[in-house]
Amino acid sequence: MLLTAGAAGAGAGYVATQEKPRSQVEIFFNDLGRSIRHTTRRISAGLPGRRPTTYAEPTSQRSVASEPRSGIALKIQRSTLAPTEVHKGEQVTLTLRYMIMGTPEKGVTIREKSSLNRDGKELTVLKDESSEKENGTWENTLSFAVPEGAQPGKYTVTLLISAQGQTRSTQRSFTVR
Predict the structure, then answer these.
(1) CA–CA distance from 96 to each of 14, 21, 81, 153, 158 (Å)?
(2) 53: Cβ–Cβ under 8 A, 6 or more apart, which residues?
(3) What is the CATH number of the domain that holds 44?
(4) Total domains in the fold of the chain
(5) What is the pTM of this model?
(6) pLDDT score for 47
(7) CA distances (Å), 155 to each of 52, 82, 86, 87, 158, in order?
(8) Helix, coil or strand: residue 31
(9) Which residues span the domain enclosing 11?
């Protein structure tokens, strides 16, 4: 069975060479897609308009003042995945906690993406959403059931957040027994 990277969502982005494996792949993605649940909540608020610590670019002439740089600060504080060993049908839960500071009062667009990978190839995107976020600490929880069609082995989930040209990511793995 051959799976291609870059799936746009559960059940998409695969090529199967035989009808029987294709049905197994379809069942896998359909089961996975039906089980995905996610929530986002704000853990704590940051101060409105507060900027991260600024710094001045070094200059070769001491008399020339440089403008301090400022912008948003985006940091992953914690990511977890449990359990790390599962059987088909069992739930996997991921948590991503991140902090954002330096946003304008109206907030900033944050993209949150999670993808399921195996053997270095993206099998499917579990979540890909953008929303306005204000300063503070945010926590995303994503859970899904391991499909009955999952092959035994190691799977990796890549968690990514991005805003204003900054991207932060982390990976967590689990093994299907």
Answers:
(1) 28, 34, 9, 23, 11
(2) none
(3) 2.60.40.3880
(4) 1
(5) 0.69
(6) 53
(7) 36, 13, 11, 12, 10
(8) helix
(9) 2-53+65-176
